[in-house]
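hey can u check if this looks right to u? its 287 residues, i copy pasted from the old doc so theres a chance i mangled smth
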Amino acid sequence: MGKQSVKIKDVLERLYAKYNRRYLIKPDPLQFVYRYSSGADMEIAGLLAAVLAYGRVEQIEKSLDDLLERMGNNPFEFALKFDEGNRRKIEDFKHRFTTGGDISELLTLLKKVLNEYGSIENFFVEGYTSSDKNIIPALSKFCDSLLEICAGANKGWVPKGVGYLLPRPAAGSVCKRLNLFLRWMVRKDDVDTGLWKSVDKAKLVVPVDVHIGRLCKILGFYDQKTISLSAAIKITEGFAAVEPADPVKYDFALSRIGIVENCTGKISSRCRVCELFEYCSNREDWA
């Protein structure tokens, strides 16, 4: 590891020690996973929380509260036995442009998966190969397989809303929400659940949103103008140079800079006490 990587690792480790705490999870949608003690329920709640993690934070929380309340105390059983009665329970659900019909389509897919494979993990690892460079090929197979099942049940048609919930890496999607779900399931520490035992955390890809993208650009991990799947992979490679066995280790801690410290990328008086101050202070717009 070069001197620069050692320096960045020291900074990232301080951030991890400071922010990677269970009590700092809220308002992250991961909070809804910890409402349940059963791993089966946590897995279903996790996928739903991840795919609906778009829009304003307050709206995400409100929508997930609403959806999970409609599903009762056992999300796994609700999905496993999804029927017309359950469909009616969520038919008027809405989160921005995701409808109850979209969620019903997703739960119909999950019902098939759960009845055949027992868990989302077992279905996912059907397309996972440990020799792959990263998780993207497996994620592609996961999404493609679900969309093929959906198309087969709808005379070749996949509803647009379902396609949005299951974006395809092959189509160039950055897949932030699904990579977030994989981080929650695969990694294990005070924040991430570690429910999945069959996937190597070294294969994970950073779930890049605008906040993580901005901070990673400051750290020098990429310089692309837009956030794309190739940018996410490049960012992940930057973290892998620092922590090869766990490249998404620092994702949650870095995201707290925006959520807990209200960092917007603009210079403020609070910047001088931030662990990233030295990197930000080299920016051309620093006054």
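The chain has one domain: 3-280.
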